[in-house]
Amino acid sequence: MKIAVLVFPGSNCDHDAYHALKHVVSVDAQFVWHKEDSLEGFDGVVIPGGFTYGDYLRTGALAKLSPVMGAVRRFADGGGPVIGICNGFQILLEAGLLPGAMIVNESLKFICDYVTLRTETSRTPFTRTIPEGTRLRIPVAHYQGNYFADAETVKRIEGNGQVVFRYCDVAGNVTSEANPNGSVSSIAGICSEKGNVVGMMPHPERCTEPEMGSADGRLLFESMVSWIKENAR
Amino acid sequence: MKNVVVTPEVAKEHGLTADEYARIQATLGRDPNITELGIFSVMWSEHCSYKSSRIHLRKFPTKGPRVLQGPGENAGIVDIGDNLAVCFKMESHNHPSFIEPYQGAATGVGGILRDVFTMGARPIASLNSLRFGRPEHPRTPFLVEGVVSGIAGSGNCIGVPTVGGEVFFDECYDGNILVNAFTLGVVRHDRIFRGYASGIGNPIIYVGSKTGRDGIHGATMASGEFDEKSEEKRPTVQVGDPFTEKLLLEACLELMKTDCVEGIQDMGAAGLTSSTFEMASRAGTGFVMHLDRVPQRETEMTPYELLLSESQERMIIVARKGREQEVLDIFDKWDLDAAVIGEVTADGIARLLMDGVTVAEVPIAAVTDEAPIYDRPVERPAWQDDLNRLDLSALPAPSDLSESWLALMSCPEMADKKWVYRQYDYMIRTNTLVAPGSDAAVLRIKGTRKAVAISSDCNPRYCYLDPFVGGMLAVCEGARNVACSGAEPIGLSDCLNFGNPERPEIMWQFRSAIEGISKACETLAIPVVSGNVSLYNETMGKGIYPTPTVATVGLLEDADDRVVSWFRAEGDLVFLLGAERVDVELGGSLYLKQVHGRVAGVPPAADLAHEKRLCAFLKSAASKRLLASAHDLAEGGLACALAECCITRPDGPVGATVTNPFPESVRPDFALFSENQGRVLVSCRPADGAALLAAASEYHIGISQLGTVGGDTIVVADIARLNTAETYKAWSEGFANALGFGE
Question: Angle at CA B257, nearest 5°, toward B89 and B183?
């Protein structure tokens, strides 16, 4: 099993994703430079966080033009598991692989903090082993993590079961106080219609070991591993 | 600038004195042309030459068995075993941050990061020590917002966590804020790089951003006092591009895995000039440089502008001859400019050409070794005696001590700094074991069992009242903070912020603080391995408090030995280390300042031998896993430290009840808030109490069991009590409230 960790100019959570995969979850992980145009031989793709191209244009707007994104699209179309985290989520939105857009946090400030997420669906490769309703403690670190989509799109993704995570309080209640950035419907993560492409603002790669304050992020990567094992058979 | 005739007046406009100009004429044997004058003026500026400070800086103890690189390079390096070392430095960006807070702070962070990765180290954490004017000063909220978002904008984008620091307010900083940035990196012993232009014939390669006209004479600006026109100096402030810096970081570290590099240095203050002259000076070489080959983002730039520009994100690499293409290829991969602009020569002369025509030719040594060094007059200020006078018996006792206690907990100096650090990515790189809010931040070193603890410290009130004692106490507090985390202090970087050195009183403060730091470092065996001096922090004749910030680095051989500052569990026992220290010490205290509006008296005494034993004991107790928590008593004394232990717990506040360690004859307000040094509040599981007492006596540390953790009130004997929830609320909202940053 081999997982690609994409590296764009300005990616900065690439080492963290690599560490979580290789040294915690113990799968083969490899960095893939954004100028590569093939993901041949990989079983899963992680688009890590960062500030690709400095976020000087819209977040992700330039990274979506990199050659590797053509390969990501083909990989996703073939049903392979793809997860975009933070800036990776923003790139997937700009690439049109996921619906909606990101705007600046309601507070107009960068936010780095632990939040609680409620798992809304187990139908993705990254949540298949996480029962619906499970609360996860995972950190956020972003300036533009305020998920936005028009009412019709929100209705559609809600109806399709494309909302994967919502911000909630420690008891699991979705409240406006527990929403750190103003995201519509408290959405923290979504998936494609087929479910194999997931984007989320919180950083599971930052919390795969208890000494980091939580090991809940590990569940997502282990889920992906189990999905890959099952689908390889 | 080409046709400007150099006269003594032009030299004066460049910040050079008549004597200094005469010295340039003498050393060259002729008048300099304008380009040469520009070179001398920046290299002889206070910022680059340390001309007022150098003779005093020599007093620092800089050696030790772990020191791999002391002062004089881009950053210091200290061995942590297993072929690994930590590389760190603290640096000021005060003047630019006052003029343009966002860019000033952002480029301060960018600059210190380059100082660390230029040595071959991967930066893993940053700290910031920030000093602002009164919270109610109309400019303060703007400066706080700008500086914090500038630090966030730079550090978060580059992907180096900002894990701690200090935020302090006092009216002495109304016209001169301080922004001191610290970065620590990790480097393998065999991958350390230095700033040497060695190897005759080796190519000099420029890499990074293109050169523009930004920041010309930034170093000269940072070497002068402010006046009412200072805000007109914006064009001398550099503008940062953290994205490019991230690319530069990755490209340099990739390059350093090859063996193409002979020497490397970043272009900081005085840009192309200081980097090339310093590298040649260290190696005892000279160089030829073709300025027209420098990548440029503006047209028609003159040699003068190219040499003095402080455009950010640029480095000079001296590569091994024949390996140029490998260097260029790596920078091309990262979409960065790179150009061979010259070569190393043997004759000790800097020859600068533009389109084949020589535009400047000066001996390297004339600019570097022969820079002026001043032994400026020193005089104890006439006001010092008045300042040190404090009649405690005349101090009115507050009617409600609990109310005073709560007021201290919510004042911006003491209050929760989450408003600040929530804007910093303090978790990226997944090494942060202890996040902001404890005595020191603790970071694991991946691939080992080790961790480092880092803290930045200085109490400017103590330094104002007695800079010698204040300097000692800054070192003691730093050492105590890392020791409270379970670490052994192994090295220190300083950032010395003072007023105008041409005033004898300021030089007295400066010299005294250095002597204090030196004495404490010698006793505690903590080498000073890097640092920075920022003088002329004055506006219209009013100087800041002497502020010698120290950043202390500690090592934990086993990351699992780390200790946090907050109480962990109900029922745990609370002890006070240094409990025998019961002379009332309120000079320069937070209580005196916040409740009585005074900064006076003499600072608390420093007992270096005790501090050394205390650090050794804390490390030992941590490694035996006897400590549930350890928190140093600092501003606000026992009362504020106790409340912090109770309310900073991430799982939510907890109460505690303790006895009063002072004799009954001591006034209760003094007992609560006296700032005696060398004291630490620790807690342990009930089963470990006896072992802790025995261990303390082994180290000759006075220890007294004060009480237990638990309940929903924080109680000191029958003197004062606070409700934990109310205290938490006041503390957590105090910072935003004081600055008017409501939700």
Answer: 15
